[in-house]
Amino acid sequence: MHNKSDKWWNMLFVLPTFIIFCLVVIVPFFIGTYYAFFQWDGIAVNPMTFVGVRNFVNVFKDGQFLSSAVKTTIFTVLGVVTINVFGMIIALLVTSKLKTKNWVRTFYFMPYLIGGLILGYIWKFIFSDGMAIIGQVTGLKSIFFNWLLSPTMALMAMVVVFTWQMAGYIMIIYITGINAIPTELIEASAVDGATGWQTFWRVKLPLMMPSITIALFMTLSNCFKIFDVNLSLTGGGPANSTELFAMNIYDEIFKSSNYGYGQAKAMIFFIIVAAFTLVQVSITRKREVTM
């Protein structure tokens, strides 16, 4: 039974984290919201001009931002599917009777430990020089060429890199869900003559919905917010064909010096990400099965 002193001690330990959260997240959020209603270049000596909601209205007339929205949506759909499919396959593999499952788990989780900027530069070499060398050696230049020079393939290259980075992390989430399934249910399905696919589809998958909810939330939000890989791998090129949401906002604020307008874009970006993730969580939580 907890007494009042335990409550105050708990609050004391939580307080530093709460203060840091407020200083790093809450305060900048409200300051950014305030700046979104002004025309300003971000330099303190220059005056700020109040423009009301004009910045928000102009966002929906910005062709480059709308183009970034389409590209981000395409990237997010492809990324969410590939990351979760590969994460699930690897999780099923390492929870089987595979003798090298610990090595496989470590191998696939390692890319997540590499920073996005470094990862982007590594794969930039692979997609440029590496692919060109393979194309010359094999003679398959129609497949193995510099993907980063093609507007379509450059976006696919980003999907490949982000999948390679995130699949190992999502694998861990799915492993937790698989290990939480009672072995009696798996054995009962085998006794009833269910095939491996039937056991997965009818038994494992429904009971893994809490893990799937978390995994989809993580991949959906991270795909929408991707910036570091976008910056180091393609830089938004070629010809802005891979400029996603976060990079468009970054360029607007720090390259074009439209601080207020960039903050308006950031606010709309926040609303879009929050809306998609909340809808996803509400849908998947309804499908969760209690054991």
TrEMBL record:
The keyword Cell membrane applies. Keywords: Cell membrane, Membrane, Transmembrane, Transmembrane helix, Transport. Pfam families: BPD_transp_1 (PF00528). This is Sugar ABC transporter permease. Belongs to the binding-protein-dependent transport system permease family. It is found in: Cell membrane. The lineage of its organism: Bacteria, Bacillati, Bacillota, Bacilli, Lactobacillales. It is a multi-pass membrane protein. The keyword DNA damage does not apply. CDD domains: TM_PBP2 (cd06261). The chain crosses the membrane at residues 12-37, 74-94, 106-123, 143-164, 266-283. Residues 69-280 form the ABC transmembrane type-1 domain. It comes from Schleiferilactobacillus harbinensis.
